């Protein structure tokens, strides 16, 4: 089993909050993590999976009786977004006996789940997002970075016996999301059109988000594109990275950039079947950029916000970490093994005035290439950010 970085943070929340929510996409390992937590808690626990008909019926038909009769246990409810009316009863039960670790709630991609649970359990619940397996987690099991980048971080996909099984897993994963989950979340377009929409997003991965271009390409309105992208974000499939432009006098690009969050999913959507195919593919540079972002952003301290920076005259930085309104770290991401800096990068640092600056390549080396600049790989970057106290764990 691969140890997950958030485990200790979740246990800390369970020592204080009556309920803890673990959110993330399907197949990311929420159930496995919860089952491990159940063995580490100081009291007995009971598990219900609302995707199982018998568990769903038991809780929906006998909610109060079932929860009250397990009042001295930690109750784990998986796929809890399938029974949103449950949250009102959870609030009442928690308030009658307010103690730590009463509930662990696991949820997969549901905006209504987030909204309803926040309204009903405000002040009673702490949320944690479980991302796909990170490179620092995979490295502890000696999984090569090449395999992790190519296959992505979903556990079953990453650990598949070969690339053929990985590809088949991704195929089934996308089919399940498209045909079941996304339609339940509010995307009403046909399945073929939704497939085209997701593939269109994969082709603009790492680019500035242009709603008109996407709208014209697949024949739906700008408003629908915006709404569907919001749903894909809340389903943990895509990330919009906002530009940094506070207190800047220059002409700044103000459109966000769009990324498919899991590199393995991106590669499947581009029909990239092996690592050798990946390094020769035109998307490899943008893929590496998105991959590095997804290894860093889930680990950031909540006070540190990620952005990118770009001006109309060519200054550009792939990732800028901002503390409050102050940029504190600039990160240039290069697939080339050579750490040479572009003029746009040095101009960006002059604008942003960041003292800690990194060039991230696959090879790295953690070496200084000029004052204020370190050349490193992804794991070395995270170690440097840990030293600077910009990551949570």
From TrEMBL:
<dbReference type="InterPro" id="IPR003593">
    <property type="entry name" value="AAA+_ATPase"/>
</dbReference>
<dbReference type="InterPro" id="IPR027417">
    <property type="entry name" value="P-loop_NTPase"/>
</dbReference>
<dbReference type="InterPro" id="IPR041682">
    <property type="entry name" value="AAA_14"/>
</dbReference>
<feature type="domain" description="AAA+ ATPase">
    <location>
        <begin position="16"/>
        <end position="132"/>
    </location>
</feature>
<protein>
    <recommendedName>
        <fullName>AAA+ ATPase domain-containing protein</fullName>
    </recommendedName>
</protein>
<dbReference type="InterPro" id="IPR025420">
    <property type="entry name" value="DUF4143"/>
</dbReference>
<dbReference type="Pfam" id="PF13635">
    <property type="entry name" value="DUF4143"/>
</dbReference>
<dbReference type="Pfam" id="PF13173">
    <property type="entry name" value="AAA_14"/>
</dbReference>
């Amino acid at each position: 089993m691969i140890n997950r970085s958030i485990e200790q943070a979740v246990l800390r929340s369970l020592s204080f909050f009556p309920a803890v929510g673990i959110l993330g996409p399907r197949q990311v390992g929420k159930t496995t993590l919860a089952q491990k937590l159940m063995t580490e808690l100081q009291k007995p626990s009971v598990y219900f999976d609302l995707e199982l008909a018998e568990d769903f019926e038991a809780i929906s038909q006998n909610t109060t009786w079932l929860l009250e009769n397990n009042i001295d246990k930690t109750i784990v409810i998986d796929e809890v977004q399938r029974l949103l009316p449950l949250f009102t009863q959870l609030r009442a039960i928690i308030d009658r006996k307010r103690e730590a670790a009463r509930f662990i709630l696991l949820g997969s991609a549901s905006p209504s789940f987030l909204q309803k649970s926040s309204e009903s359990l405000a002040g009673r619940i702490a949320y944690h997002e479980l991302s796909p397996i990170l490179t620092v987690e995979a490295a502890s099991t000696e999984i090569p970075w090449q395999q992790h980048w190519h296959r992505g971080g979903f556990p079953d996909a990453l650990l598949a016996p070969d690339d053929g099984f990985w590809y088949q897993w991704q195929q089934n994963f996308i089919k399940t999301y498209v045909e079941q989950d996304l339609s339940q979340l509010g995307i009403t377009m046909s399945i073929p059109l939704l497939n085209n929409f997701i593939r269109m997003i994969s082709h603009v991965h790492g680019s500035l988000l242009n709603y008109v271009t996407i709208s014209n390409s697949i024949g739906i309105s700008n408003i629908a594109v915006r709404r569907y992208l919001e749903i894909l974000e809340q389903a943990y499939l895509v990330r919009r990275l906002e530009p940094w432009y506070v207190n800047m006098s220059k002409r700044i690009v103000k459109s966000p950039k769009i990324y498919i969050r899991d590199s393995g999913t991106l590669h499947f959507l581009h029909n990239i079947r092996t690592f050798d195919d990946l390094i020769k593919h035109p998307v490899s540079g943008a893929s590496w950029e998105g991959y590095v972002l997804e290894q860093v952003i889930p680990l950031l301290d909540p006070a540190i916000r990620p952005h990118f920076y770009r001006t109309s005259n060519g200054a550009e930085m792939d990732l800028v970490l901002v503390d409050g309104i102050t940029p504190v770290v600039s990160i240039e991401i290069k697939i080339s093994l050579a750490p040479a800096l572009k003029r746009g990068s040095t101009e960006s640092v002059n604008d942003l005035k960041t003292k800690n600056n990194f060039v991230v390549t696959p090879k790295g080396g953690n070496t200084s290439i000029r004052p204020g600049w370190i050349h490193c790989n992804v794991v070395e970057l995270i170690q440097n950010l840990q030293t600077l106290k910009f990551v949570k764990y």
